[in-house]
Amino acid sequence: MYGVPVSITGHTGLMSTGDHSGYIAGRYRDGALSDTWTDVVRCARGTFVGFVPVCTCDWTGAIQPATVAGFQASQHALVTEHLSPAPAPSSCGGGSPQYPQTAGTR
Questions:
Q1: What is the DSSP letter of 17?
Q2: How far apart are CA 69 and CA 97, in angstroms?
Q3: For the range 37-46, what are the long-range contacts, defined as Cβ-Cβ under 8 Å and sequence gap of 24 or more?
Q4: What is the per-residue pLDDT across 67-83, written as a single tens digit (0 to 9) for each?
Q5: What is the pTM of this model?
Q6: Whole-angstrom Cα distance, residue 95 to residue 51?
Q7: Per residue in 12-32, pLDDT tens?
Q8: Distance of alpha carbon 88 from its chain centroid, rounded?
Q9: Residue 5 in contact with residue 41, Cβ under 8 Å?
């Protein structure tokens, strides 16, 4: 997404881009989060009350339900909100990008 390479390694799904290493943590009933070594998808059902996208730089995303959809939403948030945020608007002219016209097209 947005041209930023994201590598995914290990059984925990650690995602990294240069200075950042993010993962999906499980949220325990007491509010504590699991560490990078916990494979949250292999833990017993009911171990976690939610999933949370986190990064080693201390960024933390929103808590998602402890479901497959919640895990996927956490992955999506980690990649789109933190590891590869949308590029800043261009300061050269604004508006939409201009593409050159080629012969025979309009």
A1: E
A2: 35
A3: 37/12, 38/12, 39/11, 39/12, 40/12, 40/71, 41/71, 42/11
A4: 999 999 998 888 888 77
A5: 0.65
A6: 38
A7: 455 555 666 788 999 999 999
A8: 18
A9: no
